[in-house]
Structure prediction request, 120 residues.
Amino acid sequence: MEDFARFCCPNVRCSSFGQRNAGNLSVHDRFGKQRQYRLLCCNVCQHTFSENQGTVFFRAKLPHDTIVAILRHLQEGCGIRATARLVGVHRDTVVRLARLAGDHAHDIHDEFVAFSPSDP
Prediction:
């Protein structure tokens, strides 16, 4: 049994839009060089989407471990050029991933703030 608790239908016209763990998702296909990524399908609206959609890993050509290493270096305060040298990638790649991660963090923050309980 696959775990879909962290996924929801991204189709705004779907009646199950944004509902996590609603039981409406299934694996439609797998893709990637080793078929390691799942293509999910909403059983309500038939919309298909990647499990990596909306993350820094979506459409990434670099290995997963390299992206994680770049983000960890940035998290520890390493500069763009130092991170590029340490990981062995071009500095523009580091900048692009930093921007993607920042945009994703901003969206996640807004989602959590929108659902946080109000102060009495």
Summary: The first helix runs from residue 64 to 75. The two ends are 41 Å apart (CA to CA). The chain has a mean pLDDT of 86.
